[in-house]
Amino acid sequence: MDFIKRKVSRLGHSMAHYKVLIKLKSLEVSLSQSGEVYILFKRGRHKEQSERLRVQVMERQLVTVEFVDCFARVSDFYKGKDGEVQAKPASFSVFFIPEGLSSPVKLNSTTLNLATYVGKGPVVDRIPLGGDAHFLTFEALVEEGGAGQKTGPDSDDEDHEQQKLAKKHGITEANVRIVEIVQEQPLDETLQAQNQDL
Predict the structure, then answer these.
(1) Domain containing 138: what range?
(2) Of 156, 148, 134, 132, whose CA–CA distance to 22 is shortest?
(3) Mean of per-residue pLDDT scores for the chain
(4) pLDDT in the model for residue 15
(5) What CATH number does residue 157 fall under?
(6) Which helix (DSSP H) or strand (DSSP E) does residue 73 occupy?
(7) In 2-59, which ranges are E strands?
(8) Comparing C-alpha atoms, which of 109, 106, 134, 132 is closest to residue 195?
(9) What SS3 state is found at 33?
(10) 3-state class of 72 per DSSP?
(11) CA separation for the pair 118, 85 (Å, rounded)
(12) How far apart are the first and last CA of the chain?
């Protein structure tokens, strides 16, 4: 049913391939125990996971976790006759694996519209997540020009094209991970100070 709705909504729209590049920068998260944090990026049926980063805390603290992961893909975008690009939803989910356990706990997730980044060049964005995962900062680049032939409607599975994209932008395997304690003060005071700045 969703497939038919999508097809109908695209009538009268022109389709073009776009390169989508999402570079993770940092995650602000409150943790009360040590463990591993990772981010899952989802677009359509396809998911990509960041490296799992070890975070060590002694008590409940607000920490900033620095990422160097990048998600690169080619995706179809649709434009109306007025030039407006149709919405392209994607999502970020934040997971935490407490020390000594193997099952991840989902801290929160949020959706975003990739169409808002079309043609704006590299854009650094900081989006609120809610819950214990407060803010995610990333750089987005969505520009026209991708692979000429795709394997299916919005398949997003062109590994070779994605590898070329990553190489062009200097993305290599992530190696160094940094975890920085943001505040030594209690979490409640930290969050109140942040809310006043907004």
Answers:
(1) 14-192
(2) 156
(3) 77
(4) 86
(5) 2.60.40.150
(6) strand 70-79
(7) 14-31, 35-43, 46-49, 53-55
(8) 134
(9) coil
(10) strand
(11) 8
(12) 41
Residue 161 lies in a domain: yes
* Domain-embedded: residue 8: no
For the chain, what's the residue count? 198
Residue 115: alpha-carbon gap to chain centroid: 14
Q: Which residues of 150-177 are buried (b: 16+ CB within 10 A; e: fewer)?
A: beeebebebeebbeebbeeeebeeeeeb
Q: Largest Cα–Cα distance of the chain, in whole Å?
A: 57
Spatial contact of 178 and 50, defined as CB atoms under 8 Å apart: no
Domain membership flag for residue 5: no
Residue 28 lies in a domain: yes
**What DSSP character marks residue 114?**
G
Domain count, the chain: 1
Q: pTM of the predicted model, to two decimals?
A: 0.70
Collect all residues with Cβ–Cβ distance below 8 Å to 52 and sequence separation of at least 6: 36, 37, 38, 97
pLDDT in tens, 111-155: 999 999 998 999 999 999 988 999 999 999 999 886 544 434 444
Structure-model confidence comparison of residues 8 and 197, the more confident one:
197
